[in-house]
Protein: 12-oxophytodienoate reductase 2
Organism: Heracleum sosnowskyi
Amino acid sequence: MGEKQNLQEVPLITPYKMGNFQLSHRVVLAPLTRMKSYGNVPQPHAILYYSQRTTKSGLLITEATAISDTAIGYPDVPGIWKKEQVEAWKPIVDGVHAKGGIFVCQIWHTGRVSNTGFQPNGQAPISCTDKPISPSQDGSHHSPPRRLSTEEIPQIVNDFRLAAKNAMEAGFDGVEIHGAHGYLIDQFLKDQVNDRKDEYGGSLENRCRFALGVVEAVSEEIGADRVGIRLSPFADYMESGDSNPEALGLYMAESLNKFGILYLHVVEPRMKTLGEKFKCSESLVPMRKAFNGTFIVAGGYDREDGNNAVAENHADLVVYGRLFLANPDLPKRFELDAPLNKYDRNTFYSSDPVVGYTDYPFLDETSST
Ligand SMILES: Cc1cc2nc3c(=O)[nH]c(=O)nc-3n(C[C@H](O)[C@H](O)[C@H](O)COP(=O)(O)O)c2cc1C
């Protein structure tokens, strides 16, 4: 079978114009925390990791990257608030660009998903609330947060803006604001967490004010055509759920149109818990219809339902996490309908610079270098 014929048959492997970026296919590398950025500085081993997953005119999203020293909630995650970190990102971005990839940096604040051990001077983590996360069974420890005062909130918005500016200096093509998965922005969005009485809490409009303020500031700084945001209205990780996720998702999709940002990236409702997919009746289609820019979906996709999502116009692009982690040449495997490597969950968060990271085999090992 000729390659050309194959290209026509695989919706995921068709070109797409995302704003000013001409993509050659629809298979996107998910943001994947790897906890190998020792001392919060990206390491040279990330050059190989990201460049292995780069295709010409393919889109990649970095692992979540801390915007400030209060943003950290896990060991050895990278940051982008210091010169040293910006410099360390440069060769990683260059590696992706050398192979023609398009690379955006996911900018992140964990909020209350942190503890005093990660915070400057051992202070309490910050959040929209002072409600702590319940003690967890998995051994992770979260300290009771300190509720940000109304006057402090613009400073945190500004930290996102500066991180975006730094991302541009590092050479990234854009940023993705991490508004998902129970972290700071999601804590403001969700009524299970946000118990504020000021203009950042209460009504839907007020709960979305912080997220939209970040979008506005970052768009002003680097241009809306370089800004994406990730949301997970239906998820309730870290006790960050909402009583009306449909309304929240729709309000955000509609409000984002005002800024003309590049993309909206949404986690599927079926990802009720990180790592498992459930059958469910909720759908992202209303958000897809409401949003004017590029719509990206994530969560539990395989080749077949990714192809269906594109063919049925439920999404423009499909993000792959675990499959892309274990298959550095995933777009090629999808194009050829080739077998996939299995991912090893035990090595997802190991600190080893190679194991479970840059050692997954390519389809054709001779083309891996
Ligand atoms: C090891 C690992 C690290 C992750 N890190 C992040 C992250 O840094 N930022 C984020 O938004 N999501 C993160 N996620 C969620 C993924 O981006 C993705 O949404 C999830 O894995 C579901 O997609 P999949 O079924 O294709 O793996 C992570 C998931 C895994 C497995």
